Amino acid sequence: MPRPGSAQLLALLLLVPGPGGASEITFELPDNAKQCFYEDIAQGTKCTLEFQVITGGHYDVDCRLEDPDGKVLYKEMKKQYDSFTFTASKNGTYKFCFSNEFSTFTHKTVYFDFQVGEDPPLFPSENRVSALTQMESACVSIHEALKSVIDYQTHFRLREAQGRSRAEDLNTRVAYWSVGEALILLVVSIGQVFLLKSFFSDKRTTTTRVGS
């Protein structure tokens, strides 16, 4: 049974879409645990699921996506990161799960971004009798560029967090290895001292006088 925690509370909540129908969450996935999330999607809506394991073990996780009828749309085992795009074939609640059940000792930190539908236009075309002005076109271009910047910043933050985790793990291993080497050198040094001491220690010899 998974240990109770904030990640499980998040898994029980229905995802609340942000601007443009995007949901971004970073959560901890304990060892031998499975976390599922749910999203209500209308038919014909284009969706994208992107995830990445930030910390833990070999930085891998199982991922599974199902439609309202339980049909598997996406399934990957032990993936470090991936992205999957699909169009909803029916109305209902879609379910996607992340599993760390194959891991016995290590928990993972997982980030995912679930985008539902397209972002609303910056300048809606309803009730417009003219094309976008030069200022409006420039605003749209700047808006798209800022969206790209945000995406790049997110990916770079994830890479930085993953790199920091790897560096800390390597530092811990080096520290343990250094302590082990020090203990081995200490044992070898003590052994050599006793060995050299045995070479120069006085040995008592007994002589027997043979009488006539």
UniProtKB/TrEMBL annotation:
It comes from Cercocebus atys (Sooty mangabey). Its main location: membrane. It holds the Pfam family EMP24_GP25L. It comes from the Eukaryota. The chain crosses the membrane at residues 174-196. PANTHER family: TRANSMEMBRANE EMP24 DOMAIN-CONTAINING PROTEIN. One of its GO terms (biological process) is protein transport. Residues 34-116 form the GOLD domain. Belongs to the EMP24/GP25L family. This is Transmembrane emp24 domain-containing protein 7. Potential role in vesicular protein trafficking, mainly in the early secretory pathway. Appears to play a role in the biosynthesis of secreted cargo including processing and post-translational modifications. Keywords: Cytoplasmic vesicle, Endoplasmic reticulum, Glycoprotein, Golgi apparatus, Membrane, Protein transport, Signal, Transmembrane, Transmembrane helix, Transport.
